[in-house]
């Protein structure tokens, strides 16, 4: 797998990761919820997503405000998990440009592997009515994760014809990404809160790490969940951020990134060697 090859020698010093420490502290005392229950009770495939970028201190305050209403997804005793993804785009980054320009008909194509469990999925995320995100996915063989196989290509073509009435373009791997995630779940209404730390991006020989912050994404039916309200009460504003687009912008400075310029300048510090 491309990502595993590119990042196999990456080791994070936990003592230097305050974000990781804050995340681990927030999940340790919560009641667990199994993956099976998450899928059956809280699998929002059509949802409203909002992203936030929090300092470790802000994240701790958020966790305390959520109370015990949210459980933590746990698998085989683990509560944080490493996610590894390979994103596909055209040679001229058409989907990156579509996102930057805010086109209504846009999508992301990726291969995602849950490194701690060995599960691998091929996914297409499309924009539905009123800006809702719709995730289409199919399980894939771990040995071919990161490849646009014949089966994956057929699935992609089916989704794009159904959603947008268009043919699939020629795609290629353009970005490897990895991070560690914990998932908070409200089993009452299916609301979820994903919390990502230790972002890593790579493509070819180029590599860059994200900041020591927590990327929080709320996923609810209407965008007004308990976690959204808690973040608003803490004065934390939503950010326009796509982990995919941020990674592409960091590793490809020749591409326009005006939509995320302020966020990049304030929170992401690329390696000068990549410039």
UniProtKB/TrEMBL annotation:
Pfam families, per the entry: VTC
Listed CDD domains: PolyPPase_VTC_like
Organism classification: Bacteria, Bacillati, Actinomycetota, Actinomycetes, Micrococcales
InterPro entries per the UniProt record, alphabetical: CYTH-like_dom_sf, VTC_domain, VTC_sf
Organism: Glutamicibacter mysorens
All copies of domain VTC, residue ranges: 47-251
Protein name: VTC domain-containing protein
Xref: SUPFAM superfamilies: CYTH-like phosphatases
């Amino acid at each position: 797998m491309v990502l595993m090859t590119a990042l196999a020698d990456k080791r994070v010093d936990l003592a230097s990761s305050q974000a990781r420490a804050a995340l681990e502290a927030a999940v340790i005392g919560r009641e667990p919820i199994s993956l099976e229950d998450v899928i059956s009770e809280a699998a929002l495939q059509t949802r409203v997503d909002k992203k936030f970028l929090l300092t470790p201190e802000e994240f701790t305050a958020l966790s305390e405000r959520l109370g015990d209403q949210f459980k933590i997804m746990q698998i085989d005793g683990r509560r944080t998990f490493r996610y590894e993804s390979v994103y596909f785009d055209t040679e001229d980054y058409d989907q990156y440009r579509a996102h930057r320009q805010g086109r209504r008909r846009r999508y992301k194509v990726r291969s995602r592997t849950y490194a701690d469990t060995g599960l691998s999925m091929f996914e297409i995320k499309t924009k539905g009515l009123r800006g809702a995100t719709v995730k289409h996915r199919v399980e894939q063989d771990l040995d071919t994760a990161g490849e646009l196989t014949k089966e994956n290509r057929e699935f992609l073509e089916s989704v794009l014809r159904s959603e947008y009435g268009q043919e699939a373009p020629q795609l290629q791997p353009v970005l490897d990404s990895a991070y560690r995630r914990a998932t908070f779940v409200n089993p009452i209404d299916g609301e979820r809160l994903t919390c990502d730390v230790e972002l890593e991006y790579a493509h070819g020989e180029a590599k860059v790490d994200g900041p020591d912050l927590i990327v929080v994404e709320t996923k609810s039916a209407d965008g007004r969940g308990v976690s959204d309200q808690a973040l608003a009460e803490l004065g934390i504003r939503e950010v326009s951020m796509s982990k995919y687009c941020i990674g592409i912008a960091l590793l490809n400075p020749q591409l326009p990134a005006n939509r995320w310029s302020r966020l990049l300048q304030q929170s992401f510090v690329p390696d000068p060697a990549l410039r």
